[in-house]
Design a protein that fits this description.
- The protein is an alpha+beta fold.
- It has one domain: Hotdog Thioesterase (Thiol Ester Dehydrase, Chain A, Roll).
- It has 2 helices and 6 strands; from the N terminus they run αββαββββ.
- The protein has a 6-stranded antiparallel sheet with strand order 1-2-4-5-6-3.
- The chain is globular, with a radius of gyration of 15 Å.
- Pfam families: 4HBT.
Length: 136
């Protein structure tokens, strides 16, 4: 994993292990990149579908976290689906998430993961639950 793709703000998390780096965070859009490398491969040397799903859920969860009252709420992935469109062996994939629904207790995100040429690798939709922050 190179320092360029390593998100040092989240050490010892799945983001760190997979090399996921957030590159944009607004109320309307979340973007992250992930290297396609042995840590994100399945046994045959292609991008693992689970790595794509982890990237998609990361984008949706961070996007939701950005929109909630962080002093009194937390969020968790509730449901996710993914269509794996095209295989990839190496390089970088980019996930772009946009909110489809911003509710009080759930948010729904559409996430498109593309390769360097802009070709669709994975299309995903993720529902994120918004819950009260537990007492310390």
């Amino acid at each position: 994993m190179t320092e360029k793709t390593k998100d040092t703000a989240h050490p010892q998390t799945l983001m760190d292990a997979l090399g996921i780096e957030l590159t944009e965070l607004t109320a309307e859009r979340v973007t992250a990149i992930m290297p396609v490398q042995p840590a994100t491969h399945q046994p045959l040397g292609y991008l693992h579908g689970g790595a794509s799903v982890a990237l998609a859920e990361t984008v949706a969860s961070v996007g939701t976290w950005n929109l909630i009252d962080q002093s009194s709420q937390i969020c968790f992935g509730l449901e996710i689906n993914a269509n794996h469109i095209r295989p990839k062996r190496e390089g970088i994939v980019t996930a772009v998430g946009t909110p489809l629904h911003r509710g009080r207790t759930t948010m729904v995100w559409e996430i498109k993961i593309t390769d360097e040429a802009g070709k669709l690798v994975c299309a995903s939709r993720c529902t994120v639950a918004v819950v009260p922050k537990p007492e310390a």
